[in-house]
Specification:
Number of helices: 1
Oligomer: single chain
Number of strands: 4
Helix content: under 10%
Order of helices and strands: EHEEE
Structural class: mainly beta
CATH class: Mainly Beta
Strand order of the largest sheet: 1-2-3-4
CATH architecture: Roll
Strand content: 25-35%
Shape: extended
Radius of gyration: 19 Å
Largest sheet: 4 strands, antiparallel
Length: 88
């Protein structure tokens, strides 16, 4: 039987986005603040291997920060893996 214990998945959490000219980015130093396009209680986007899979909320875990998943997104039918083990 196949085990999934050794499979690695790259998880990314995006709080917000912004676009700025490179010269502005290069002038930033320690303590600079980048304004994001989200409100305090907006969901973050959770990506697995660069594919959006869920949304969540930022939670504080003592001195650490975590994400509480609020919605798991369904994959569209056209990107499901093709079966290779015979007819459907």
């Amino acid at each position: 039987m196949t085990t999934f214990d050794e499979i690695k998945v790259d998880i990314s959490v995006v709080l917000g986005e912004n676009e700025m000219p490179v010269h502005q980015l290069l002038r930033m130093g320690r303590g600079a603040v980048i304004d994001l396009d989200v409100a305090e209680d907006d969901d973050v986007k959770i990506y697995a291997n660069n594919t959006l899979v869920a949304k969540g909320q930022v939670v504080l875990l003592g001195e650490r920060i975590g994400i509480s998943i609020t919605e798991v997104l369904m994959r569209p039918p056209d990107i499901r893996p093709m079966r290779t083990d015979g007819p459907l």
